[in-house]
Amino acid sequence: MDHKELIKSLDADARTYLTQKSDRAGLKRLAGHFGWILVLGCYVAVGAPFWGLALIPLGICIVFLFTLLHETVHFTPFENTRLNTVVGHICSVLVIVPNTWFRYFHLAHHKYTNDPLNDPELETPKPESFGDYVGHISGLPYWKTMAQLIWNQAKGDVIAPYLPERSKTAIVWQARGLIAVYSFMIVLVVLGWSWIFWCWMLPLLLGQPFLRAYLLAEHGLCPPVANMFENTRTTYTNRAIRFLAWNMPYHAEHHAYPAVPFYKLPQFHALTQDQLISTSHGYAAFHRDYTNTVRDQ
């Protein structure tokens, strides 16, 4: 049974239950996620003993706000639409991803998942050699691409097949706004507000490789077919990673039925687990398989 057949097999009550959004569930998870950022950030800011050891955990917590940004694109973390929008824009600034552009980019990715000709995620090829893999995981190519993207958008270059004409003005002004915010942050650091560097900029750089490794597992080594249970991977992992990633390790389930909010994905997984084709038992197992594959190639 593919994902479309499974969704059709659900009755109206099951669909209503699975797609019911909750501000309470979303705010509870949001408080937990930002709570860890605040605790670790304060630990670094006050120079507590061995504060340097907190930089990577802090960076991981910050950079994984990308998964919350991703959820706000679908308007599923919160029932309140405005809350989804506001939280999405805050996350956009913190992880340096233009909000409106990413919404259309990501929705096109859902429409054409793993389609080599149409999925915009595949405009940047997956690593095909071990050297490419190391470079990809470092996050450095990502930062170069994102900086160029924002700069081009700020200049008015927003041409892409997945971007509707009505979105282009917002994308241009958001890119200019991001450049203004980040320029202001750099000025503040130069003027002595060093905590911005130590509590956000440096941790963001240190955390990015962990996000790259996580995201590569979502579709890496998956075939270019239409079935979301096959072209997308669910990774069995621990509660800490599921917490940070807003349950997105249940990624095949998310692609099969994007309207299901993060906190209902475990229940949806229980319905779909027998149909899943692309799975890994942990991220270490996936990356062993990936590195073995690129070495063989």
Explain the overall architecture.
By secondary structure, the protein is mainly alpha-helical. Helix content is 65%, strand content 1%. It is built from 16 helices and two strands. A two-stranded parallel sheet has the order 1-2. The chain starts with a helix and ends with a helix.
Number of helices: 16
SSE-based structural type: mainly alpha
Cross-sheet strand order for the largest sheet: 1-2
| Tally of discrete structural domains | 1
* Percentage of residues in helical conformation: 55-70%
Poorly predicted tracts of residues? none
Succession of helices and strands? HHHHHHHHHHHHEHHHEH
Radius of gyration from the CA trace? 19 Å
| Average of pLDDT | 96
Give the amount of beta strand, in percent: under 5%
Based on Cα principal axes, name the global outline. Answer: globular
How far do the termini sit from each other?
A: 32 Å
Described by strand count, sense and barrel closure, the largest sheet is:
2 strands, parallel
Q: How many β strands by DSSP?
A: 2
